[in-house]
Amino acid sequence: MVRQTSLEALRKYRAAGKGQTHRAIILDFLINNPGKTRGEISALTGVSLQSVCGRVNELLGCGVVVEVGRRKCTVTGSSAMMVGPIYGDDQGRLF
Length: 95
Prior knowledge:
Blueprint: H1 4-15, H2 18-32, E1 36-37, H3 38-45, H4 49-62, E2 65-72, E3 79-85
Antiparallel strand pairs: 1-3, 2-3
Helix pairs in contact: 2-4, 3-4
């Protein structure tokens, strides 16, 4: 169950427009740097890992980006999924 304080924090976050800004930052980053892990996106954009994970999940849900494979993350050293944009052609071409 989600606590009321969490819901209030989410409302304030959305009202401030931070989610929109972070999505734009992350999508722009991935268009120019496809195949990065969430940890790498966070480290290279300055957006917190929690925000990156949430915004990437939103972008995945919208069909704007896809997970494109797994490799060792250069930030965490752990195996992690890479994310890349989907381009608008009929092929769904990656990168």
